Amino acid sequence: MFVSVVGGSRCSRREAKLAEEVGAELARRGVTLVCGGLSGVMAAACKGARSAGGTTIGILPGSRREDANTYVDIPIVTTIGEARNVIVVCSGQAVIAICGEYGTLSEIAYALRHKIPVVGLNTWSLSKGGQLDSSIIIAQSAKDAVDKALAAIEGRGD
């Protein structure tokens, strides 16, 4: 199983701790973590996954494998900048969005457009026509996020 973890390249200590917990929980369940491969939430999630013996894949925006954070096992160079966000989300069977800014919002949108379940931890909420859109599955903790992501994958038959 593959789960994409998305979030800001800058994050608070609290957000980094949450991302690290998500990464570790994914690894404990034998799930490969996919992310954008850089800093912030991405590095923290990879650190957590590696600390629990998991495998991490970083989909990099540039042309240098060396740009990946030190916890990425498999760096994938794309040379396509932020367009790599589509690859990040479509490589996962579910997406866990942790906090984040507009890049994270774009990844949420790409995932939903491609009918990939999105679980949110302290991230964006959506509305359409003034009505709350419940497309993002809200989680309360790292374990809850992983539980919900894996349940959503199983519900799709992936």
Overview of the structural elements:
By secondary structure, the protein is an alpha/beta fold. It has one domain (2-153): Rossmann fold. It contains five helices and nine strands; from the N terminus they run βαβαββαβαββββα. The strands form two sheets. Strands 4-3-2-1-5-6-9 form a seven-stranded parallel β-sheet, with helices on both faces. It starts with a strand and ends with a helix.
Short overview:
The chain is an alpha/beta fold. It has a single domain, classed as Rossmann fold. It has 5 helices and 9 strands; from the N terminus they run βαβαββαβαββββα.
Instruction: Report the mean per-residue pLDDT as an integer.
Output: 97
> Which stretches of 5+ consecutive residues score pLDDT under 50?
none
Secondary-structure content class: alpha/beta
**Computed Rg:** 14 Å
The total of helices stands at 5
Strand content: 15-25%
Write the CATH fold name.
Answer: Rossmann fold
- Domain count: the total is 1
CATH architecture: 3-Layer(aba) Sandwich
List the secondary-structure elements in sequence, H or E. EHEHEEHEHEEEEH
Number of extended strands: 9
CATH hierarchy, class:
Alpha Beta
Main sheet record: 7 strands, parallel
Shape estimate: globular
First-last Cα distance: 9 Å
State the helical fraction.
25-40%
